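Student: I would love a firmer grasp of how sequence relates to backbone shape in proteins. I am handing you a single protein, as its sequence and its fold in token form. I am told such tokens are a discrete way to write the fold. I hope you can help me see how the letters and the tokens relate. Take your time, and here it is.
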Amino acid sequence: MKNNKNLPVGYDQSATGTSLIEFKNVYKSYGNNKVLNGISFTVKRGENLVILGKSGSGKSVAVKCLVGLTKVDKGEIFISGEDITKLNEEELNRIRMKIGFLFQNGALYDSMTVRENLIFTLQHNQKNLTEQEMESVVKEALQNVGLEEAIDQLPAELSGGMRKRIGLARALIIKPEIIIYDEPTGGLDTITAREIIELIRNIGLKYNTSSIIITHDLTCAKYTGDRVIVLKDGLIKAEGSYKDIENNADDWVKSFFEK
């Protein structure tokens, strides 16, 4: 593999293809509501995993467990070989530094300019940068999403697609090993959604990130996912390439593709 200067510091390129994330028999309930019922899956280094599932299937809870926002009832979750279910809050924060998020609504601070939003995130992850260094990193992140000219604008001045792009720039600014996309094309028109899909593909190629993409958008799943899993009632109902899922014989899985 060619050397990539944009990879995170300390990243081992020779490890590409090995499991970066691993869920082992994970259970999670809230009272009598059993949300995850023993799910197991892996995400390799450099892989995009799409999670499909209807509301209440356990998609969001799986992600919350992954970043330690929700404690599992049973099972293990490994990131870079480390079982995060055994870590305290300080140790979890160290792991979270490897993870970037693109939230469904962008989740930008309305009172801050684009520059200030990105610097705020950067300062919490890299505390020793000079102002000049921070400015350089911010501009690079905006160049990656094609919005360098928006640096002094407020979120309210941006379209929904532009806010998604800025949200992605903010996720990228910490040079994460893992990016979690929550409905990245949700609420966007077809053309803008395609632009976001292309960005996700390009970011994965440029930075060799591992990604978990939660989406209801089959076009997004088709063009961003190296592999797709379908959740139903906290269990993996189907797993494979998009084509495998599309051709699955199970009636419930087929329902995703009915128009």
In short: Residues 1-17 have pLDDT under 50 and may be disordered. The chain has nine helices and ten strands. Residues 150 and 158 are 8 Å apart (CA to CA).
